[in-house]
Design a protein that fits this description.
Elements: H1 3-10, H2 12-15, E1 19-22, H3 48-53, H4 76-81, E2 100-104, E3 110-111, H5 115-122, H6 132-135, H7 142-152, H8 159-165, H9 188-194, H10 196-205, H11 218-228, H12 234-260, H13 266-281, H14 289-298, E4 301-303, E5 309-311
Antiparallel strand pairs: 1-2, 2-3, 4-5
Helix pairs in contact: 7-12, 9-10, 10-13, 12-13
Length: 312
């Protein structure tokens, strides 16, 4: 059995309560094990032995336990042993039709099966964090957003976190230094953006957005995110793209220096960040022509006669 199938089977207990059979003919629905009524699965309180002793089969359908007069075929003794059966209404069977499988959402509503609906039902839930709109938004660059998600959760493998793990007995972690400035041990707060290298990058990049109030401290960035990340204004969306791209390429530069022994200058990193955001802006749809012209002028984006944007 493949890994994928094992994973699917391991969540049967989560999925099963949401897969419901809408009774029509009653022939395709197993009366004991399928989810089709408020008491389902009935096998949860009636044992296989009791089912067999009553003359039923474990493969009996809903139609098999309803007589021609529209009454249940339950033995009288069952009504005493399992009084909840008295409350179970007999479904109206329609011959010549087929039972239909539907998805039951968190609100108990039956609906057509959709992958988005399934995911929304079974996914784990936590309280929404204030930076969620900063990380995930319609115009985001996915790889930048994933990096930013790790960054806000402080999950990047920075030197301060490696020290806590005591990683590598042959490595003297006390001698580690930021590979960008060599002035201090790297941490989230240092890399974004107290490091002298990152600080130069950030001070240049932030001039292309409304980020003048954000200095080189992580706390200052968090304050801006808390106040503006939910905004859908074009300028604020650009700010979010700049923050995400800056953090992504600074982290990339850090990794390149450690693992590939490759270095870029401050100006080169700045240019990579600006180009990344510029290319994303070329696909934007602006509500106001005046806003579009102002932003395109700032970012040196030109349009040809067919209104196709290209770098200036």
């Amino acid at each position: 059995m493949t890994w994928g199938w094992r994973k699917i089977l391991s969540i049967r207990h989560i999925i099963r309560p949401h897969i419901w059979s809408s009774i029509r003919s009653g022939i395709q629905t197993n009366v004991w094990s399928d989810m089709w009524c408020s008491l389902s699965p009935i096998s949860a309180f009636i044992s296989p032995r009791a089912i067999a002793n009553a003359g039923f089969s474990l493969q009996s359908s809903v139609a098999d336990v309803i007589d021609h007069n529209g009454h249940w075929k339950w033995p009288q003794a069952w009504l005493d042993l399992y009084p909840v059966l008295i409350t179970l209404s007999v479904p109206n069977l329609v011959s010549g039709t087929v039972d239909r499988l539907e998805w039951k959402d968190l609100n108990g509503k039956l609906c057509d099966f959709q992958s988005a609906q399934v995911w929304n039902t079974i996914r784990s839930r936590e309280n929404q964090v204030m930076w969620s709109n900063m990380v995930w938004f319609a115009q985001c660059i996915p790889r930048h957003s994933f990096h930013l998600w790790l960054l806000f959760r402080n999950k990047l493998k920075t030197q301060d976190r490696l020290t806590v793990w005591e990683a590598g007995s042959l490595t003297n972690l006390n001698l580690m230094a930021c590979p960008l400035c060599y002035a201090d041990r790297e941490s989230r707060e240092h890399l974004f953006f107290r490091c002298s290298f990152a600080d130069q990058v950030w001070n240049n990049v932030k001039t292309f957005g409304q980020l003048g109030s954000v200095d080189n401290s992580w706390d200052s960035l968090v304050i801006w995110v808390d106040q503006n990340s939910s905004s859908k204004k074009a300028d604020h969306v650009i700010c979010k793209l700049l923050i995400a791209a800056s953090s992504y390429y600074i982290w990339q530069e850090r990794n390149n220096r450690i693992f590939k022994n490759q270095k870029r200058t401050v100006d080169q990193v700045i240019e990579v960040i600006k180009n990344s955001v510029r290319f994303r802006l070329m696909g934007f749809r602006f509500r106001l022509v005046s806003t579009k012209k102002r932003i395109f002028k700032l970012w040196k984006i030109e349009e040809n006669e067919d209104n196709v944007a290209r770098p200036g």
